[in-house]
Amino acid sequence: MSSGTHDWQPRRWPNDPEVVSDLRSWLAGEGHREFYAIDADLRGADLSGGDFTSAWFMSSNLADTTLRGIQLADAECTEARFTRADLSDANFAEASLDRANFVMARLARANFTRATAMDSNFQGASLAGATLVKTLLSGANFTDADLEGCNFDRADLSEADLTGARIDGTIGLVRGPVVVQTEPRRILLDGSDLEEWFRNHGSNMTVRPPSAPPDSVDEQPRIIAPVPVDPHQLPDVTWTSSAIHVDLPHSQLNRWVQQLGRGPEHLWEIDVRNVASVQALANSISPGATSLAEAIRHVRAKVLVFTKLEQLGVRNRPVLIELLHTLPTALAARKASGTSLHIGLVDLSADKADVVIAELGRAPTEDVVEPITIFDYPTMP
């Protein structure tokens, strides 16, 4: 991360004075290690060559910016607007790009390895020579995009729209089905039909059969199983099962308190907004624990609730990320030992709940045998 590094400066600062002030403070090493520009206006900037690894640009406006060679690995760019931006040679590895807007952007040779860009819009964009290995692109719009020479190996292109896209020289094993035409009628192809369409358009891509299991080496099974919650039919929670409850409403939390009672052996509630470190969080869960995973594995409660979670993300994002990456393996370990645990993540906006679910999906999977159920609650009191 380049925070506090003075050998890089923007070639052109953003037009917005408030964003300029934030950027200067960050470059001087003040505040967070990661740069935060949530719902910010960065238009007018030339940030070429800057290292913004793990930065937050959620819902920010970067239209018409110059960002050649920028480092945005592991960055949070959900719903960011990169319309007509020059992102040649940019690094988006493992970045969150769901619903981002790349219309008419220049993305030649950009790296999207393991990024998530579901429902993103690449209409008319130039991605010639880009790397999209193991990238989640389901529902993405590539209408009229230049994809010549792209590497899509093990990318998920399910429901992606390639209408009018140039795909000469593209390679890789991909998941379908793919939209290949929208007018006069929508045509969705998969399997051998899609492979034939690829060949007829100069592509060398092959298609993974719809029934094919995940590759044991190159493609881990998805351990996160999000379940949207119907507000009129809340999940029937049993205290012998385990699950993570994202954006758990206070009304549901209060019902659990009435059923179980508060306390370290029943429902244990932790306000995380001012947690200073991962070790401090571990000690608040299980005093004496040497790690966060150990703390969660050995907590005696049936329900462990983390409140003020969004504030933790703003004040100490590394602790939040470590918590989210630890939860699936810790729950798997409890299940293997015959003990269950429900995790409640409280006080999240709808946008931040989506980010939390995406981050849970990036958690290590080596020790997780069965998918972890994630209850995704709508906005409720």
TrEMBL record:
InterPro entries: 5peptide_repeat, Pentapeptide-BTB/POZ_domain. Signal peptide: none annotated. Pfam families: Pentapeptide (PF00805). It comes from the Bacteria. PANTHER family: BTB_POZ DOMAIN-CONTAINING PROTEIN KCTD9 (PTHR14136). This is Pentapeptide repeat protein. It comes from Saccharopolyspora thermophila.
